Amino acid sequence: MNRLLTLVFALIAAVPTVAAADTARDPSKLKLASANVLVLDAEGGNPIYAKAADDVTPIASVTKLMTAMVVLDGQQSMDDMLDVDMQDFDFLKGSSSRLRLGATLSRREMLRLALMSSENRAASSLARHYPGGLTAAVAAMNRKAIALGMTRTHYSDPTGLSAENVSSANDLATLVQAAAKYPTIRDFSTTPAHYVELKPAGHLLGFNNSNALVKNHAWDIQLQKTGYIREAGKCLVMLANIASRPLVIVLLDSSGKYTRLGDAQRIKHWVETGEGLAAPAAGTGSRYNGSFSPRAKHGVKVAARSPKSAGPRRV
Hints:
By secondary structure, the chain is of the alpha+beta class. The protein is 32% helix and 20% strand. The chain contains eight helices and eleven strands. The chain has helices at 2-23, 63-73, 107-116, 120-128, 133-147, 169-179, 183-189, 259-273; strands at residues 36-41, 47-51, 57-58, 81-83, 104-106, 166-167, 193-198, 203-208, 220-229, 233-242, 245-254. It has a five-stranded antiparallel β-sheet with strand order 2-1-11-10-9, with helices on both faces. A hairpin with a 5-residue loop joins strand 1 (36-41) and strand 2 (47-51). Helix 2 (63-73) crosses helix 5 (133-147). It is globular and about 55 Å long. 44% of the residues are buried. The model is unreliable at 4-22, 282-298 and 304-315 (pLDDT under 50).
C-alpha cells in the first residue's frame, strides 16, 4: 500500500515538471524581422520573448485601441449619428479614406471601422464627438495611459497619423490586455468584413479587416490592431490563443508588406513546436536607411531612428 501511494505521489509531482518542460522555448531559435517585439504569457504575465521591448517608438494606428477605450469609457450612446467633416481629413500624411465629406454613421459603426479597417476619419470623428471635443479626447487617452502604468507612452492624436504618438512594446502589451477587457473592442477588432450604409445617400460600402490573419482559421485571435506610418513601419499587436495559451504579441517597426504577418507566423510555429522558421531574406527587415529622430516631447524620450523612403502613406 505504501509503495502504491509513493508511486501515485511521484506521478502527481511529475506533472508540473512535464508541463513546464513542454512550454519551455529557446529564444535563440526565433528569428524575427520586426525591430521591437514582445511575446507575453497573458495568464502569468511573463514575457517569453522580448527584443528591444522598452524602446520608445511611433506606434501608428495601434493608437486606435486607446481611442476606442476612451470612447467607450465616455458612455455616449452607440446609436448617436456622427458625421465626417473637414476636421477629420488627413492633411498631415495624405492618407486615403472611403468615408467622404458629409458621410454619417452611428458611433457604433464608426468605432467598428476604426478598429477593424483602421479608418482614420472614423477615429477622428469619434474623438471630435467626444465630450469636450478632440482635445479632451486626447487628454483622456494620456490620462488613461498614465493610469495603466504606460510610462513610455504619449498620444498627440486619436488616429496614429502623428509620429508623436509613441510607446514601447512593453507598454503596448499593457494596452492590449486593458483593451481586451472591453467585449466591444474584442468583437469589432476581429470582425473579418463588414458593410455599412452611409447616410444620407444610403449607399452600402464594404470594408475588410486590415489584418489578414483574422480570416485564417489556423489562428484564434481574440483582439488585434494593425498600424502603419512611414516613421513607425508596419506594426501589429494581438491577443491570440496559441498552443492553448493566451499570448500577447507585439510587433513594431517591420518593413515590407508581409513582414509583420511573417513574424507572427514564426512566433506561432515556435510556440507550438519549439522550432524556428527561416528568417526573412536580407533586405526585407525593418531597418531604415539614413537617419531620423522624432522630437522628444512630454518627457518621453524617443530612440533615434532612420527614415523610410517616401511613398504612399496609409495607416
